[in-house]
Design goal:
By secondary structure, the protein is α+β, with helices and mostly antiparallel strands. It has helices at 2-13, 54-64, 89-94, 129-143, and strands at residues 15-20, 29-34, 39-47, 73-77, 86-88, 109-117. It is built from four helices and six strands. Strands 1-2-3-6-4-5 form a six-stranded antiparallel beta sheet. β2 (29-34) and β3 (39-47) form a beta hairpin. 24% of the residues are buried.
């Protein structure tokens, strides 16, 4: 059944995906290969810090991702929404407010996506497709997942006073 779904997706959209569990991640990691654009995207969703204002939650995340790749895409998610404000890390480091929902909704989680170029050759060569999936996942784990404190809330000194 899974194989049929993968083949159908590949034929209809040019994309194939898999979900894996990484113990240090806040949730499953989705690896999606887009054969049309030649990109592999690794994505995970992590819970936002609790008991903080939306901008404080964004700043809490950005402090942890200070050394992450600038092309990391971050999306702020709110309850009852499938999409929220989204931008690249390089833009958010200069203006964290870009991730704060305009309607003042609380941010409950963040979706982090890192694009990586895809190899075009078959086989086990360094430029092969399978190897590029390995490289994309290793890069996401090393540069994003390992630096995140998923279960930590902002410290009292980082929270705005009331």
């Amino acid at each position: 059944m899974r194989r049929l779904q993968t083949v159908t997706s590949l034929v209809e959209t040019g994309r194939m995906s898999a979900e894996i569990r990484v113990p240090s991640a806040g949730g499953p990691v989705l690896i999606e290969a887009d054969l049309r654009t030649g990109q592999i995207e690794t994505t995970t969703e992590i819970p936002a810090a609790e008991r903080a204002r939306p901008l404080t939650r964004v700043q809490w995340l950005l402090r942890q991702l200070a050394e992450a790749p600038p092309e990391l895409r971050i999306e702020a998610l709110s309850p009852r929404r499938t999409a929220g404000p989204c931008d690249l890390l390089k833009n958010l480091q200069a203006e964290p407010g870009l991730l704060v929902p305009e309607d003042g909704a609380q941010i409950t989680s963040f979706r982090l996506t890192l694009p990586t170029g895809m190899g075009t050759k078959r086989g086990v060569e360094e430029t092969g497709f399978v190897r590029s999936v390995d490289i994309a996942m290793d890069r996401f784990h090393r540069e994003v997942l390992r630096v995140l404190r998923v279960d930590a809330s902002p410290s009292p000194e980082a929270s705005p006073s009331r």
